[in-house]
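Feature request disguised as a bug report, sorry. It would help if multi-protein outputs had a clear separator. Right now it looks like this:
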Amino acid sequence: MAGSYNHCVDDKGNLLSNDEMMISGAMIENLGDAYEAIEEMYGMIWWLASRLVPRINSGAMKVVVEVARNSYKEGLRVAEEVNSSS
């Protein structure tokens, strides 16, 4: 897979900037690569949601994903805090 989550983060797990993804040899060279990375992250989101809510309650899983979408900036802050201590 040319585009993946690992091509979007640095060694500490911090999100690369747009420029870093395009010029650092991170393998995100075109929209196909970007789609592959997004597809992987989409799968990660739903996998995590399925661990929080039983699969028999698909409505609740959709709510968890929507809350996460609305809270992504807080998630970026959490990631920065966690990854700065590694």
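(second protein starts here, but nothing in the output says so)
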Amino acid sequence: MDPMRECETAAPADIEARAADWLIRRRDGAGWREADRLALDAWLAESSAHLMAYWRLETAWSRADRLNALPKQVSANGLPARGRRLFPRLARTVAVLALFGGALAGARYFLPRVNAVTYQTGIGGHRIVALADGSKIELNTDTALRVSGDARQQNVSLEKGEAYFQIRHNPSRQFVVVAGGQRIVDLGTKFVVRDDINRVQVSLVEGSARLEPLNDSATARPVLLRPGDVAVATEHGVSLSRQPQAMMVSALSWRRDLLIFNNTPLAQVAEEFNRYNKRKLVVMGDDARSMGVGGNFQADNVAVFARVAQGVLGLHVESHSGEIVISR
């Protein structure tokens, strides 16, 4: 099941229970690790409902500070030492539950508003989203993402597709992108994130960013990206490579509705065209699939490319309903 859709359909009571568990673990402090913080951040980034539930409980917890005096009064009456040690946490937990109803009713007055907005494009679509902080997000073809946040953090969840981020860095307000099982933290950056099936690719154009796994793993470690770095994350780990500036520019040619190929196998060329067009290219035969292709093409004009394949590359082209078949 899609984890984003699962969090949207979770019962409010289940979300509140999970938020309470996270809050108690973090406030208790014992055994709280960096991996726990990352896991909490990922859970909060999944849904605005998660954020609201956590803030409501955190506010209620803070209001329970006045109960700190209660253990002192009880200890004077001879509460055993073990009970005195456990009582502060117990009192706070009970206080959170008792105050939750009031916090829920009054949340609209004293909590910051968190609005989650979904943006998407269809096949061949291109959209620019301007955020209030001056940052911009460009959505490529067949892309969907959700934006939410508060005064402390801006969150973007890339659910599918590809997007180019131009982030106006604010050290007091973290910008986080979640894609697949990865979390990208802006450190003053321009970068591209592409979320394919079982694969997330992050290309760093300018500035720096930190790529880190959402889940704790003994083999997964955060990766600091610099301009020219391309990180590919799969279930087997993260691979890092360098890319010349010219290739970075070519990879962003979709922003101008262009596809640029440089001795690219025809099979890969067809895959790229198929991202932008409802009429699909089908390449038959290993000889044709491995043939190198170069040139600049309009992303949304697959018919022109088919004529080039026939007239210039000498390939056989057949047009069918919904697809164009290319072969030797």
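Even a blank line would do. Unrelated, but nice: The first strand starts at residue 117 and ends at 120.
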